[in-house]
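FORM 12-B: Structure-to-Sequence Request
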């Protein structure tokens, strides 16, 4: 006999610059709140979410994924572009096979039923602190800048 499991979704929240005017029926409560400018409000939204879904098909290094992780919220995304630099599969989120909605669904189930949620929140924050801290990034940019300044024109 095949076991069936269900995930309870109470509300789906959409935010961002694009004004979604379609009346989609997902079978549960949805809310479109548009662009969030206030950083505290944005942080509160990320922090209160169980996960942040970013189903981009092409993306370089999306700040939204880094922002979600900084707030302790795991990220669900396709394994494309710079998302592999941000999301560590099954450590601070889930990277689905590119364009596979079936695998994206598996990732949704995985993240919503993960038993050790406190550990995944810690992993999210740790990733940002170790890799995207402003002081660390500034130093890395300065190192590249200084290396370019010291370049004497010879090809090695």
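FORM 12-B RESPONSE
SEQUENCE OUT:
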């Amino acid at each position: 006999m095949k076991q069936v499991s269900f995930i309870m979704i109470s509300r789906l929240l959409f935010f961002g610059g694009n004004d979604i005017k379609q009346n989609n029926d997902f079978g549960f409560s949805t809310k479109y709140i548009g662009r969030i400018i206030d950083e505290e409000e944005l942080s509160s939204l990320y922090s209160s979410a169980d996960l942040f879904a970013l189903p981009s098909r092409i993306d370089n290094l999306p700040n939204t994924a880094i922002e979600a992780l900084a707030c302790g919220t795991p990220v669900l995304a396709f394994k494309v572009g710079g998302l592999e630099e941000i999301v560590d599969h099954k450590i601070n989120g889930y990277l689905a096979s590119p364009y596979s909605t079936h695998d994206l669904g598996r990732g949704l189930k995985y993240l919503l039923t993960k038993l050790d949620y406190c550990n995944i929140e810690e992993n999210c924050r740790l990733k940002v602190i170790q890799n995207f801290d402003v002081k660390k990034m500034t130093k890395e940019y300065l190192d590249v800048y200084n290396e370019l300044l010291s370049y004497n024109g010879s090809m090695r």
